[in-house]
Amino acid sequence: MIHFFCPSCWREISESVVMCPYCNYDLRDFNCLSYDDKLILSLKHPIKEIRRLIIFLIGLKKLKKALPELEKMIEYEEDPIVLIEIVKTLQQINDKYAKAILNKMRFHRFSIISRYIEQIEYSQIKEFYGKATNFNNK
Ligand SMILES: [Zn+2]
Q1: Does domain 33-137 have CATH number 3.40.50.1000?
Q2: Which of 13, 54, 83, 90 is the 20 to 30 A CA-CA neighbour of 103?
Q3: Beta-carbon contacts of residue 36 (< 8 Å; ≥ 6 apart)
Q4: Domain extents for the chain?
Q5: Confidence (pTM)
Q6: 27 CA distance to ligand 1 centroid (A)?
């Protein structure tokens, strides 16, 4: 069975409604949004696997417009796997704002997140010095 969700409040709705009965969102508005804006709205999807996929796509597209929503998400997201996906996406985007959010995540209430960031940074440093050594050998 296929479930339909309101893209504004993410409560389950029937396929046939035009207006969400919970938040009055006009579902026809959603079809007028750009693909990027649909992605950003979908960060609030109730299914964590979908959220993770959306975050991954935002990283692939290096969608800077999604950064404010990702910043909010690190406060309320309860799933560590989704949070780790955010870390990867921030690294992909890698601008000043993304780096600032990443810095904030070092002090995340889930210690697994800060440990994950330390671990990837350690491997990047190792890789960097590995390359530097190869360069010197030439
Ligand atoms: Zn709604």
Answers
A1: no
A2: 54
A3: 61, 63, 65, 66
A4: 33-137
A5: 0.85
A6: 9
